[in-house]
Amino acid sequence: PSEVEEKIKSVESIIREKIGDYIFGKDEDTLEKVVGNLLIEKNITLSLAESCSGGLVCHRLTNVPGISASLLAGVVSYSNRAKSEILKVPERLIKEKGAVSYEVALKMAEGVRKLTGSCVSLGITGIAGPTGGTPQKPVGLVYIALCAEEGKFCQRYIFPGEREMVKLRTSQAALDILRRYLLGRLELKE
Asked: Mind listing the pLDDT tens digit for each residue in 81-107?
């Protein structure tokens, strides 16, 4: 390697050391490609229950060649009826906590995992806007839950921007949660 290549490697090493987990790939890597390949390599199956993201996470993953070995199903459960009838989210829970809540996101992930028998699942619910927000639950509020045999995880976000940007940021965050899980860097709860 040339002197320039050595310097580049040295700087890359320093950057990776400083921001480590925020780097998901290099060169032509996309987050969906990295996640899809991890799923395939580890022989892990995935199912998705998406509401506010409208199937965008599933769409992005289907761009990865060979993903059919891992991606079992994606359910766009946009209505409360779909959440309760397809994913078995209790109607009472939706009434008490609201469709956009930590609890409902977890139940969506559990429901789609039970429905498909996948190793891991994601449940995504939120308010993409421009309407539907309240002071307690503003536009951009999103919950992303992960459910696996060894435990569960749920994260709350408030994403800025127009509807399309909220959906894109939601899909990016969901894929990153999945990436961190696949790398053993996500703290799950029983």
From this structure: 999 999 999 999 999 999 999 999 999
